[in-house]
């Protein structure tokens, strides 16, 4: 039995970070920035939905799973706190979250039109994407190899914890009686929404940073193609692992990558502070 614990990365956000913090790579810096801008709103929604389903299950919920959900909530709360500080610096650099209102409306509509179980199926879809991204970063440390140390830390930490809690919402969904069809219909919706939101935000950041102007556009395009479609491009990981999710036998831990998260945690333990209780799972 392992535990799910919330940790705080020791980052002094008052120092800020460079506009092109990932070794001057415009495309990769802004891909990560776009994700950071999306996280706080999304993670608040995940927490609300998980709490709602737990309340609905009441005393029928397995205590181990209940502890795991508490660990999940603790981790997502600290992610939100850290990314809010990250995003405040982006704001001072002149960047804004152009999809904030769209996401707000989408979430309000989900609360109004969908059952708690369907909303949890949506959360499972997003959690699968964050697990893919987490595994990608833990497997390809060179992506952050030239990043400022604090930025490499926040993304490594977030990746490790997304990997650690990747099965919690999935197990909660199954415990609440969720099935294959709803999970996969929700995944299609999530794939569409995530692509739209990320794409819109990514191009707005590149545009705002003059990365699409004639003098820079070739560099931006080259970096972006290499990051997305290069030999270890993220698009291949998203595609292959997205297809895996469609299987009726899918479970997040079918991809046994716990050793990657443990090696990252051991190597970076001195820069993390544990908070709260441990939650067994
Ligand atoms: Fe997170
Ligand atoms: Fe997560």
Topology:
Layout: E1 3-9, H1 26-57, H2 63-92, H3 100-113, H4 116-139, H5 149-164, H6 168-175, H7 180-208, H8 214-229, H9 234-245, H10 258-268, E2 272-280
Antiparallel strand pairs: 1-2
The structure holds fe (ii) ion (2 copies).
Describe this structure as you would to a colleague.
Helices cover 68% and strands 6% of the residues. It is mainly alpha-helical and 281 residues long. It is globular. The model has no long low-confidence stretch (mean pLDDT 95). The site of one fe (ii) ion (FE2) has 6 residues, from α2 and α5.
Annotation keywords:
single chain; 10 helices; mainly alpha
H/E topology pattern: EHHHHHHHHHHE
The tally of strands reads: 2
Cα distance, first to last residue?
Answer: 6 Å
Percentage of β-strand residues: 5-15%
Q: Describe the sheet with the most strands.
A: 2 strands, antiparallel
Number of helices: 10
What structural class do the secondary elements suggest? Answer: mainly alpha
**Helix share of residues?**
55-70%
Strand order of the largest sheet: 1-2
Q: Kindly state the mean pLDDT as a whole number? A: 95
Distinct small molecules: fe (ii) ion
Taking pLDDT < 50 over at least 5 consecutive residues as the criterion, the unreliable ranges are none
Q: Outline, from the CA principal axes?
A: globular
Rg from Cα: 18 Å
